[in-house]
Every structure is written in structure tokens, then in C-alpha cells.
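TOPIC: backbone geometry
CONTENTS: sequence, C-alpha cells:
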Amino acid sequence: MKGYMDQVLAAAAAAAAVGEVPVAAAITDADGVLVALAENRMIRDGNALHHAEILAIEAAMAATGRARLDGYDLWVSLEPCTMCAGAIAQARLRRVYFAAHDEKAGAVESGVRFFNSASCHHRPEIYGGIGAAKARKMLKAFFTVRR
């Protein structure tokens, strides 16, 4: 389990190295095979919607030819925001594993707690805190330089 998060954190570090917020995400299938790996590309692509989770979901759908990812899992270095939580629900991902909590913009276990909303039609299993210390350290270092 930790191996996937290690890959995600390495991709997040690569994003930081080119000036993106250090967030990355991966999708694995029911057998644990890595299907997609993506990092934030908002600055490089000039698109505020290009969060790592969105890009990983799109890549997994393209790779599998599936419009829904039932039975697939998402691994992400930072707690997903509301936009990404909505995409997770739409994609019907089975589980979400994330590293650091995001007290400001997180929407899974922080903030709006999107999956607890009565209007949320799909609720994945949630596992937070995997590799949290490393993710928090990377995020803190990134934002310390910019502030």
C-alpha cells in the first residue's frame, strides 16, 4: 500500500520542481495495477481545472476505455478539494487514499466533507494520513519559498 503513495509523492516532488503545487495522484485497478499517474499541471497548462486527481481520472478512463472506474482506487498526496471530490463521485472510484489533510481546501475529511452530503450519490471508502508527514513537509517547503 505504501508503495503507491511513494510513487505519488515522487510525482508530487517532480511537480514542485517545475513550479506546480506538489500534488500528484494515481489510479490503481482492483488487482493493484497502476493504471494512471498524474501531477498538478495548472500552471503549465494554464488551466485551473488541471488538478492531479482530475488528470489521473481522465488518464485512467482513456487507458481503460471506461466512463466509470468502479473497482478502481485513487491515491493522492493531498486531501481532494470539492471539485476533485465531485469528480471522484462521478467516476465511482472505490477507494480514496490520501496523504496530507488540507484544512483550507480539503473536502473529504476537512471542510465541506463532500461525501457526507445527502446529495452525494457515491461514497468511496476513505483512508487518510498515508505518508502524511512527507507530504506536509513537501507542501510546507514549497509554500515557504513562495511567501
Summary: The first strand starts at residue 24 and ends at 28.
